[in-house]
Design a protein that fits this description.
By secondary structure, the chain is mainly α. It is built from 19 helices and 5 strands. The strands form 2 sheets. A 3-stranded antiparallel β-sheet has the order 4-1-5. The chain has a two-stranded antiparallel ribbon with strand order 2-3. The longest helix has 33 residues. The radius of gyration is 24 Å and the shape is globular.
């Protein structure tokens, strides 16, 4: 505890870091405040009596989405759709970057190309939000919450689409400001703060249930939960270091090279994004099904994707997570670029020729270490299904593994990494003194 207290004091001694943290907390507080602002034309009391727009976190796909937006979905808040349309737009843009020559060209244009891709993603976010807000409006009007609507149907639909679209754009702007002027990844932190809002209630439900029946079972459950967290941290921080030898070269009177460095390849190079991407994709069929309330076939699809606790959903979700892990690793880690950089700097991997063989060597290792990492992510992603089968309360089972726990752990690690970097640049010890956290030299 003394070490943590000293680290906190160090943070407040660094003015820039202190300002960034306060700025981040301020914008996150604004976001949380917006989740409690009800849409125009909705009677909040009648909505609460009807049980909200979603049947509770995790009870359906709507409840699952409700967790990612901090309860704004069930409360019909102006941020009911949160940042998820932006994530969906990012997925579409990245998929098009793999198959459409125009987007491939933008990806190779450096900073200018990234600005254009960001702008296209923003436009896509607006379109997707408008589409999803129509489905959300139909869900409000024709579901059990229809009695909470106190204005005309047409005017309510138009106003809701405008407000929800504006709310999502504002949340997107908050995330970009946090990433630029705050600490951590703004988009990930906004999702995380929404998930954390459900954690106290989930813990309370689990403690109150098990303490009345079997306290030993509660201790065992907390121990398993801690082991799962440790496993996620281990996989997130695990990496394979490839030795790279640099030959000596003389420039003027100075000698460069002649040293051995290491090329780090992370076991989970994709980070938290495959989980977010996979969950966004799993939301799409349920959203589309809301547009066809009279179609039995579409409603059967909506029922399948609306129950995360069933085996079919869990198996499909597992394979989607594994697939997106490989996909995101492929677009975020470029073996050809690594091989060219090593060759350009006069380096080589011992026993491997420069150029094509180096690229193939890096690509093979990356594939081998990504496979167990993706399987682990997929297994943890479906742990809530097993937890609920073993009697864990539904509200806490979502934190017993799955998307929620992975996002919480990995976003926390990434944020701590940035805090560590700021402290180490100013010769302070961070939270991870003596450990091998990324950003700290061994």
């Amino acid at each position: 505890m003394a070490g943590i207290a000293e680290s906190v004091r160090n943070i407040w001694q660094v003015e820039e870091l202190r300002d960034r943290i306060l700025y981040t907390f301020g914008l996150l507080a604004i976001y949380r405040f917006g989740t409690f602002v009800t849409l125009p034309g909705v009677d909040a009391n009648a909505l609460a009596e009807a049980g909200g727009a979603a049947g509770g976190a995790g009870s359906s796909i709507l409840g699952f989405l409700d967790m990612f937006v901090g309860g704004a979905f069930s409360q019909a808040g102006i941020f009911a759709l949160g940042i998820m349309p932006y994530i969906t737009a990012s997925i579409i843009i990245q998929l098009m970057g793999a198959v459409v020559p125009y987007f491939q060209k933008l990806q190779r244009q450096g900073e200018e190309g990234r600005r254009k891709i960001t702008q296209l993603t923003r436009y896509g976010t607006v379109g997707i939000t408008a589409l999803q807000s129509v489905g959300y409006t139909i869900n409000l009007q024709y579901g059990a919450t229809g009695q909470a609507i106190v204005i005309g149907s047409t005017f309510f639909t138009i106003s809701t689409v405008i407000v929800l679209t504006s709310g999502t754009v504002f949340v997107m702007w908050l995330g970009e400001r946090i990433s630029e002027n705050g600490i951590g990844n703004g988009i990930s932190l906004i999702i995380t703060i929404g998930i954390i809002a459900f954690l106290p209630q989930g813990l309370f439900n689990e403690f109150s249930t098990n303490l009345n029946y079997n306290p030993f079972l509660l201790i065992l459950e907390m121990g398993v939960w801690a082991l799962i967290v440790c496993g996620i941290v281990l996989v997130s921080q695990g990496m394979r270091r490839i030795p790279v030898q640099y030959a000596k070269r003389v420039v003027g009177r100075k000698v460069y090279g002649g040293t051995t460095q290491y090329l780090p390849l992370r076991v989970n190079a994709a980070g938290v994004m495959p989980i977010i991407f996979a969950q966004s994709i799993m939301f799409i069929p349920g959203t589309v099904a809301t547009f066809f309330p009279d179609s039995p076939w579409m409603q059967s699809i909506g029922a399948f994707f609306g129950d995360p606790s069933q085996w079919g959903y869990a198996i499909l979700f597992f394979f989607v997570v594994v697939g997106f892990t490989f996909f995101y690793t492929a677009i975020s880690v470029n073996p050809q670029e690594m091989a060219d950089t090593i060759k350009r700097q006069g380096g080589f991997i011992p026993g491997v020729k420069q150029g094509r063989q180096t690229r193939e060597f890096i690509d093979n290792i990356l594939t081998r270490i990504t496979l167990p990492g993706s399987i682990f992510l997929g297994f943890v992603a479906i742990l809530p299904t097993f937890a609920m089968m073993l009697g864990v309360s539904q509200s806490f089972a979502l934190f017993f593994g799955g998307t929620s726990l992975i996002i919480l752990v990995q976003v926390t690690l990434d944020t701590l990494q940035q805090v560590e970097s700021h402290l180490l640049m100013r010769h302070y010890d961070g939270f991870m003194k003596g450990s091998r956290v990324r950003g700290r030299k061994a």
